[in-house]
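ENCODED BACKBONE
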Amino acid sequence: MRRRTECGRRLFYNALIETSNIERKTMNRRTSKIAQFVFAAAIIGAASAPQAAAAREFVHYHSELDPGSIVVSEHERKLYLIVDQDDAIAYKVAVPKAGKEWSGVVQINAKFVAPDWTPPEDVKHDHP
């Protein structure tokens, strides 16, 4: 009787070991698939990162303006978002043609998501 019990235990433990090996192999396949997916996502993310990084640049920009103020430098073709008295975030921007520039101080009075916008009359005149 004792011998049967030992034999049964061995069969039971061998079955457990085999099952865990099968689970481990399955797990390795799943892990491998997940690793491949994560790797592909990282490659895609890395390819788009230079574009996002090139869109803005943290720069030293001394200004007495309040944080959150925006300064547009036409000759540098940059927009500066003031972070503090000595730092800003610079964005490359398009600037108007000669004779179409404007200057001054403007207060932003509203912000809209996907606003309705039509070009001003002078733009309609230049590009009918």
